[in-house]
Amino acid sequence: MTAIHASRSDAVTAAEQEHQERVRRLAGECMVVLENHGVLPLAAPCKVALFGNGARATVKGGTGSGDVNARRVVTIEEGLEAAGFTVTTKDWLDAQQALTERDYRDYWARTEAEAARIGQEPMFVSWADPFVPQEIAPFSAAADPAGDTALFVLARNSGEGADRYHKPGDYQLLPGEKALLETLGKSYERVIVLLNVGGVVDVPAIAATPGVGALVLIGQSGAVGGHAVADVLLGKTEPSGRLAATWARRYEDYPAAATFSHNNGQWNEEYYTEGIYVGYRYFDTFGVEPFYPFGYGLGYTTFAQRVDAATADAEQVRLTVTVTNTGARPGREVVQVYASAPYHTLEKPWQQLVAFAKTPVLAPGEHRQLTLTFPLTRLESYDPDRAAYLLEAGRYTIRVGHHSRDTVPALYIDLDGDALTKIVKKICPLDCELPLRTRRETRPHPELAVEGAPVVVLHAADIATRRVTYAGEPDPLPAPPTDHCITMEEVRAGKWTLEQLVAQLTVEEMADLCVGTAREGQEGADSIIGAAALTVPGAAGDTSVRLAYRGVTNMVNADGPAGLRLAPHFRVTAQGRILAPSKAFSEYAVDFPPRQPGDTDYYQYCTAIPVASLLACSWDLDLIEAMGDLVGEEMTRFGIRVWLAPGMNIQRDPLCGRNFEYFSEDPLLSGLCAAADVRGVQRHSGAGACIKHFFANNQEDNRMSVNEHIGEQALREIYLRNFAEAITAGNPQCLMTSYNLVNGVHTANSYDAITAFAREENGFSGYVMTDWSTSSARITAQVSRPDAYYPCASSPACIRAGNDLQMPGTQENIDDIVAAVQDGSLPLGYLQRCALRILQAL
Fold first, then answer.
1. Do 638 and 584 fall within a single domain?
2. Which residue in 222, 575, 659, 801 is a FRET match for 90, CA 20 to 30 A apart?
3. Is the pLDDT of residue 523 over 50?
4. One domain, residues 574 and 707
């Protein structure tokens, strides 16, 4: 029988408790104070009138494979009461709970009916249409005469498989929410609004409500969020978060709003006409005033920043900044550095983030000097005509400040000529005409020189140029000089090389290795997608066990990125069969079969950490690395080899259903956050992280068949740069390709992206896997929209592109690979290299 790593006891372990406490301590530091008119922090626990659909139905994280089956969720109500608050609106909460439960029963009945109609698991239908209460119980202030403080918790949820909507109950407020907020503003001296959301919502409508005294983005902070929120309200934890995305005055202000996903009535083609102007790059360049800018956050105190020194040479820029706490409470500040490049021929944003650092907790009056150093190449742009990254001649302004709309020039760099920094080749060519937004559409930004800011003159001739060398078609591996069956033990002992072992494998064995388990016709093949592992119940899948005779073990993969997604409870029969029915993944699915003599119950409770969109608001790479370290500990505890996380796609538009899994709209912040997460996981021997989804997975509607049309400059500067940063700063073991096509080619089949960009240009040394069922025609047809017309990815093309592992795999995938090698359309060397990289990971 397969070794079981789970516990036979259902009791809370010391390790589980310690992890919950760790999340509680750190989650509050990610939260962002958006408005505070002398209301927060509260001096002591008090009587509080509690409202909102998130008060009892607090959302710990989004749905789908990014969900975590935690033991329980500490709601806002529970957290407040545990901290000593008295909740005075129990009657309203009971009435709201009754409405919510009724609506949920109706919702689940519709979900099951839809699942039956299309022949899919109800759980997956619910992923694409997560439940959010749509009715708000009425309230009269006369029902609560006791207190002067009201808390309103606005909750929203989303998940993979569908995008959000610009409508009431999602991006917009429900009429009942508006009416209730207005009533509270008239009835209570202090009204605090908590945003229990994974992405952007219509905050102007909230902030404009008379009487709202504080507004806090608490995000989706994991299973102990209620405790973390109570700590923040009382000032036991200082909320030092800063926004990782721009919050607009109107949804229509976002550059892709008119055509994003379902907004223009079609789902098959997405045209990135905004080019590089994403998020604050657009708002700042084109003079669109945001409601809350990128990098904004208040905290409970104030800070002053002073640049002490600033210099640059041909390799790096170095700044020394003193931060002083000028307020009356302790707190932490984020120093943000932006750069404005000269605008000549290439499109450039008015400014872009190039560095940041966060202070430790500073007491009132205390100061701390920070040194921020970043490579000069962070100032570069990509020129598609020259197929090169370069620094154009002219003046570069380095700005330091509190957020993107509050910076001052700290350094001027004058470059005397164009400097090529990296010469590459053109990749992922456009498959259509794509008119791109240009900065010439807007008025120039006035540049006012700052007296005293130093000027550094750099010479283009002193700046190094790197020319990338690209390999051609790989030759077949030479056969070893032996008929002896080489094993992994012998490879580890140095008797033979891994290349020699691979050279002995048959085409069928290598094809099997490059296709995951849970194929049709196998035991366990009926496992649901996303929970198809044969050895660790609830894990997403694992690699082949066919080469066990050579000592090759399997690698178990578990979903993320808000913690490990496993079955919290499973059973093993006396015969060694593992039972983990879908009750383990969905509260409303079938339960276990009747218990039989000799059955043993096992438990594997994992910790739900804050979602990535909230973690990024910490702007604290050490904090994010600590969260990765927590996950790595649980991986070793439960026998997980690869964590399918972190997710790190760009938040191109607020309505992407999976934005809660992604860090930011900015590629540098996204990439560095992901790298920190990876480093935390991979501190643990045998634990590997898999960054995803590579690349441009920015739309969930029709995600397996949508073709994203993107120009090469935007690809390299926005949608691929985040992955380049994560690869170079984090060295992840694995990379997962996305479902979508880019410029007519499935990312899983993109040699340009996988081999040329990730491996040859940026040094990725791990292995690449597909997202689940990317190369399955049956699954693609089942989950795509009826009007979708792009077929699934090709299995042989995956191998040629360097996409080593196809998960969870079908026999058809194996047959297609073998046939392609046999007819010569797939040279053997490509398949051998894919097999080699998988075995290297083992």
1. no
2. 222
3. no
4. no
